[in-house]
Amino acid sequence: MGKHDFLTPKAIGIRMKAKGLQKLRWFCQVCQKQCRDENGFKCHTTSEAHQRQMLIVANNPDKFMSGYSEMFEEAFLENLRRRHGTKRMRATHVYNEYISDKLHVHMNATQWTTLGGFVQYLGRTGKCVVDETEKGWHIQYIDRDPKAIARQQELEKKKKAELDHEERNRLFIERQLKIASGKEGADTQQQPTKLRRGENGEKIKMSLGMKKEGAKKETVKTAAFGAKGSSVFEQEGKERREAESEDKHSNKRHAVDAIMEENERRKKENSRRLEEESKRQRKENWVTTGIVVKVMNKKVGDGAYYKCKGVVKDVEDKFCATVELLDSGDVLRLDQDDLETVIPKPGRKVKIVNGLGRGCTAKLLDISVDDFCARIRIDSGSHRGEVFDRVEYEDICRVADE
């Protein structure tokens, strides 16, 4: 066998080096060095350069581990977002795509020992939607980009507008069918006619007892004579009055339709103006002073403060809040992602923390538990006295003074 034949160690090493990706267990994350086999990795770990790097890491191991963990998480989520978007994918498939880059951060250098533990961490922090099946863990990225959220909201509004338009058309068609059916019924219904007497002024007699044959013939004859003697002018006058009545009803219907169209146009303009104003006032930060919030992060105090309520005393950098707990009086410094708004009972005072009317106080009128929204009446600001329907729970919060 020659020096550079196909199965020689030299040829195998050359092919492995050209491929780029080698066994992950023979990679040193601290030194950023990839070894080809177990012997090479052992020689590297006993080298002087590696020992110096390990002494530096030993001085502050938490700092290096947290740094590698952040880099691994950021690169993994970036790969998931760019390649698959918000599709539901198998976690192993996404991980294999991520490690195909030979310069990636290895999981051995992070705080996670298994891929399942890392996937569960992403689910707990709300960065991805995860679920476990017989085939393993599945992951779905949650896009929190403001542009993507705005685009999704525009699509939902467009879909809702189309549904409203279809509903209006359906109601209009039903109304027209009712009008047409009522008119047809009125035309087909037999109208009572005025009794017509003969020229001789004969009396028409009705008998409830036994009828004689002669009387029956006479009655039929008289009724037939009265039908033939109807006046042509009276019939024309009746038709003219019916036509005028139909014209009046038609004009009334046109006037009602015009009023309804004008009302619909005003409602659309008002709704569009409110949506534009709500879009201008909606921001990423919502936490503000003087409101009651709830702690929703289980890691705060090892779960001792989970779902505890507190009052926001101060806000730093728009997102960091200083919260004083109501029960224990402890003061915590938390991010707004670790907090949740508190919805009081109907009739109490709330504050609008995001969206239309941001910063204004209002009175909570009603709560829709199924739709996760509420109905409020504004007590201050330019919209004072107006009633807002279907306000989301995240946009209002209980006031601390209440």
UniProtKB/TrEMBL annotation:
Any one of the GO CC terms: nucleus
Entry superkingdom: Eukaryota
Gene Ontology annotations of biological process type: DNA damage response; DNA replication
Bias (Basic and acidic residues) ranges: 196-220, 235-249, 262-281
An annotated Gene Ontology molecular function: double-stranded DNA binding
Region Disordered, annotated ranges: 181-281
Record-annotated DNA/RNA-binding protein Kin17 WH-like domain positions: 52-178
Segments traversing the membrane: none
SMART domains per record: Kin17_mid (SM01253)
UniProt keywords, alphabetically: Metal-binding, Zinc, Zinc-finger
Cited InterPro entries: C2H2-Znf_KIN17 (IPR056767), DNA/RNA-bd_Kin17_WH-like_dom (IPR019447), KIN17-like (IPR037321), KN17_SH3 (IPR041330), KOW_KIN17 (IPR041995)
Family: Belongs to the KIN17 family.
Record-given protein name: DNA/RNA-binding protein Kin17 WH-like domain-containing protein
